[in-house]
């Protein structure tokens, strides 16, 4: 079971395959059980202790960043994620990033952004659409068209607790849509990055 994997100088941490979206471009569909030679489908979700053991086995201190990402939405396991993040922070000086769909407050039914304070260095939030209708068409959230407004609100709130909050879009979108997303990010006061599809 692949709990951790390396990409560049970062150690990626795969804690769940669950997600509230079903994005049309998701690498889970296109890469299946072969993501760069790795099968990121988990037989079961690893416990907090198992994840820590996996990081320690790799000597976590050699990495420039820990990234919660993997084949799913890490904030489906917000309680475990917070416990893990704090354990990592206590053991290593390494910055921690979460790659997220930004729906944690919907998932948890309350504002969980204060729980990110003190251990999350960066939040990379998938935006991928300029309006609620497009978002639902592309990302197919279980929350329907209310997802995008919740994502924008999550990002605004998270900025109080996390030093770096970035909206990302994948480069499969049209140039016009990418421009519109960049404007939306700017209006929200959140940094913006175009991400190469498949990473
Ligand atoms: S949010 Fe991420 S993991 Fe979830 S379906 Fe979309 S691309 Fe896949």
Break the fold down into its secondary structure elements and pairings.
Elements: E1 4-7, E2 10-13, H1 27-30, H2 48-57, E3 65-68, H3 78-91, E4 96-100, H4 104-108, E5 122-126, H5 132-139, H6 147-158, E6 164-170, H7 175-188, E7 191-195
Parallel strand pairs: 2-3, 3-4, 4-5, 5-6, 6-7
Antiparallel strand pairs: 1-2
The protein binds iron/sulfur cluster.
Iron/sulfur cluster (SF4) binds next to loops.
Describe the model.
- By secondary structure, the chain is of the alpha/beta class.
- It has one domain (4-195): Aldolase class I (TIM Barrel).
- It has seven helices and seven strands.
- It has helices at 27-30, 48-57, 78-91, 104-108, 132-139, 147-158, 175-188, and strands at residues 4-7, 10-13, 65-68, 96-100, 122-126, 164-170, 191-195.
- The chain has a seven-stranded mixed beta sheet with strand order 1-2-3-4-5-6-7.
- The two termini are 20 Å apart.
- Residues 19, 21-23, 26, 28, 72-73, 101, 126, 139 line the site of iron/sulfur cluster.
Uncertain segments: none
| CA gyration radius, whole angstroms | 16 Å
Total helical segments: 7
Span from first to last CA?
A: 20 Å
């Amino acid at each position: 079971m692949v709990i951790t994997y390396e990409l560049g100088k970062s150690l990626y941490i795969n804690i769940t395959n669950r997600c509230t979206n079903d994005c049309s471009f998701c690498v889970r569909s296109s890469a299946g059980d072969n993501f760069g030679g790795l099968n990121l489908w988990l037989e079961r979700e690893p416990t907090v202790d198992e994840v820590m053991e996996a990081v320690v086995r790799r000597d976590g201190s050699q990495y420039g960043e820990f990234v919660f990402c993997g084949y799913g939405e890490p904030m489906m396991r917000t309680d475990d994620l917070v416990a893990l993040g704090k354990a990592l922070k206590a053991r290593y000086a390494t910055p921690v990033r979460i790659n997220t769909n930004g729906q944690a407050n919907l998932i948890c039914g309350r504002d969980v952004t204060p729980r990110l304070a003190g251990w999350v260095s960066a939040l990379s939030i998938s935006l991928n659409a300029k309006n609620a209708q497009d978002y639902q068409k592309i990302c197919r959230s279980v929350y329907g068209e209310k997802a995008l407004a919740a994502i924008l609100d999550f990002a605004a709130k998270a900025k109080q607790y996390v030093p770096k909050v970035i909206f990302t879009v994948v480069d499969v979108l049209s140039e016009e849509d990418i421009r519109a997303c960049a404007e939306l990010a700017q209006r929200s006061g959140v940094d913006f990055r175009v991400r190469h599809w498949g990473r």
